[in-house]
Automatic annotation (TrEMBL):
Superkingdom field: Bacteria
Similarity comment text for this entry: Belongs to the bacterial solute-binding protein 7 family.
The protein's name in its UniProt record: DctP family TRAP transporter solute-binding subunit
Keyword Transport: yes
Keywords: Signal, Transport
Chief location category: other
Length: 337
């Protein structure tokens, strides 16, 4: 009886210790907008982050993943990050540049040659300086960028192979003015539509088309209400891995190291899946029933001649010349390697 009593007492003590440990775990709510399946780069990366962090910290951080805009659209997630109601979010460029204007510098069209160039620049000194400035202004720390896909135009009306084909089209754009400027510079009209409302806007004919990377076109089934895709690759778009800075600073050194290391792993998964889809855009979107419109280098030059000066002028008017000049310098340095 005494032995049984001692065993019960020990079991109870262990249960109390375990409960105390669980109670002390730091809750990390992690929000993103893609569907909750393993074909979604954001979700595959999020689950990898969850497993990685909880393993490295022995459960001292409890990661809770909220996919499919469960905690709101991009703007609402950013607001939650600033308030600390959401600890971590992976949000695309449009909503970020609405809160931190210099992020709009990444909307400069026809700038990067390929993923290798884009990754090198955002992972290097330029990205580090920009993200440090964003942290100081917003209270949100950018831990890294992963691909939102090379953005291409789709529409339900006409094949678009050159800028003249854009005239008369109503195009959905992300909710930041720089994207409106991009589309309008090419002769179409622009309608800002939040991401969760985009499929409905296409289905109902509120807009004729939109611009996104392969990942998002497939993930949200945008192809269902579109007929043509033009592979012009106008912008290398990004998802930013962001964390509330006060929460991050409140972690122990070991916990911060775990978060940093696990973001790097997640970023590689996310980039790899998205880049693979971009590289096979014609096949993937063709199999979804879209008519693929190739854009020749000569036609792409026409898009660049119209869009790049207009967008750059707008960006400079909004944020000054400092960040655009620094980005131009980073691109020139990369090409000079």
């Amino acid at each position: 009886m005494k032995r049984t009593s001692r065993l019960l007492g020990a079991t109870a003590a262990l249960a109390i210790i375990a409960a105390a440990g669980a109670a002390q775990a730091k809750e990390l709510k992690y929000a993103h907008f893609q569907a909750a399946d393993m074909s979604s780069p954001k979700h595959a990366a999020a689950l990898a982050f969850e497993t990685c962090v909880e393993g490295k910290t022995s459960g001292s951080i409890d990661v809770q993943v909220f996919p499919a805009s469960q905690l709101g659209d991009g703007g609402q997630v950013i607001e939650g990050l600033q308030l600390g109601a959401i600890q971590m979010g992976v949000v695309h460029d449009g909503p970020i540049s609405a809160v931190y204007k210099p992020f709009a510098v990444f909307a400069m069209p026809y700038l990067f040659d390929d993923q290798a160039m884009a990754w090198s620049i955002v992972d290097g000194a330029f990205g580090e300086e920009l993200f440090d400035d964003m942290r100081s202004q917003t209270g949100i720390r950018v831990l890294g960028l992963a691909d939102n896909g090379v953005r291409n135009f789709t529409n339900s009306k006409v094949p678009v192979a050159e800028p003249d084909d854009m005239k008369g089209l109503k195009m959905r754009v992300m909710t930041a003015p720089v994207w409106t400027k991009l589309v309008e510079s090419l002769g179409a009209s622009a309608t800002p539509v939040p991401w969760p409302e985009l499929p409905g806007a296409l289905q109902q004919g509120v807009v004729d088309g939109q611009e996104n990377g392969v990942t998002n076109i497939v993930n949200a089934s945008l192809y269902q209400h579109q007929k043509y895709v033009s592979l012009d690759g106008h912008v290398f778009s990004w998802h930013a891995y962001m964390i509330n800075d006060a929460f991050y600073e409140g972690l122990t050194d070991a916990e911060r190291q775990a978060v940093n290391e696990c973001v790097e792993i997640s970023k590689v998964i996310h980039r790899g899946m998205t880049a693979a889809q971009d590289a096979n855009a014609a096949t993937i979107l063709g199999e979804k029933g879209l008519e693929v419109v190739p854009v020749s280098p000569e036609q792409k030059a026409k898009f660049r001649e119209l869009a790049q000066p207009a967008v750059r002028e707008y960006i400079v008017g909004e944020i000054g010349e400092d960040w655009p000049n620094k980005l131009d310098a980073a691109v020139a340095d990369y090409r000079g390697q």
